[in-house]
Amino acid sequence: MGLSEAHSALLNNGLRDRVTLRVDGGIRTGRDLAIAAMMGAEEFGFGTIAMIAEGCVMARVCHLNTCPVGVTSQKEELRKKFPGTPEHVVNFFMFVAEEIRELMAHLGYSKFEDLIGRADLLKESDEQLARIAKTKGVTLSGFFGSIPESKDDRAFLRATPAEGGGLKDSVVHVNGGSSDLDREMCNHEDVKAAIEKNSGDTAVSFNIKNTDRSTCAMLAGDISRQYGNKGLDGNLNINIFGSAGQSFGAFTLPGMKLRLTGEANDYVGKGMHGGEIVVLPEADAGFVAADSSIVGNACLYGATGGDFHANGRAGERFCVRNSGAYAVCEGTGDHCCEYMTG
Q: I want to staple 323 with a disulfide (CB 3.0 to 4.6 A). Which of 74, 307, 333, 342 is the partner?
């Protein structure tokens, strides 16, 4: 329902050509992809089914470090039982693609993009609705009946003529692989000198905005190329002011001390291995820090070390798969510390 509503709202307001819609959740077959495409999706995420394809047996003990096939375990004796290979996943997706091709042939289409937004090709199955007593009174037409007709007007699949009229990839995700802030940080003379010297204390300051994503990840890469994951012997103190985009402080290493005055989006400290991340509100923020969220969801996902301190609340899935980081905040959403192993 959220997919069809998002597609409809964007199309009705003339914004659909500025957005690439990605959908996930329960997608397992080529038929699922075809239905999602007809409701407006252009990209698709696979989760559970891809895990099963590579050997997951859904034992549901991921958080206990006792996975019988070694998928979510750090015990070597269990990891040796992992049966998966990359070819298993590739083979699964080949079958998904083949099913989509067969469905497209049945419908009379040769290009997948011709299915996107074509809700007029969807029809309720009276047989399936009558199969279970609970669904006999259910009407599904509301999920796709209000999607605007786009059979003849397919302009939303391309950039506007003013932008060249080509694929939307040329105007969507224009930030590229990393932000200019990361490059500015890595090219700062004091930062380069601190990495080269690898001793003492160095302090630098930067401003940040929410389109600056994965800030400090490139810097962590520069450090790791010289010193590996042991990081710096000295301290590189980086003071940042503003609203950070996703994955602020990703893959931080020992010796990196990040202090963000403002707020941050999801995935702060993702893959953090060492160092320190401090997030606190501005002095004149005008709200009670302990009652307000200051960082987003899934902070410290997969962290293996370091210290994290937030003067405020965190979102959902805080410290998921954390296995070594020390974290302090003033409250979290659901599923805090899920799947911690080690």
A: 342
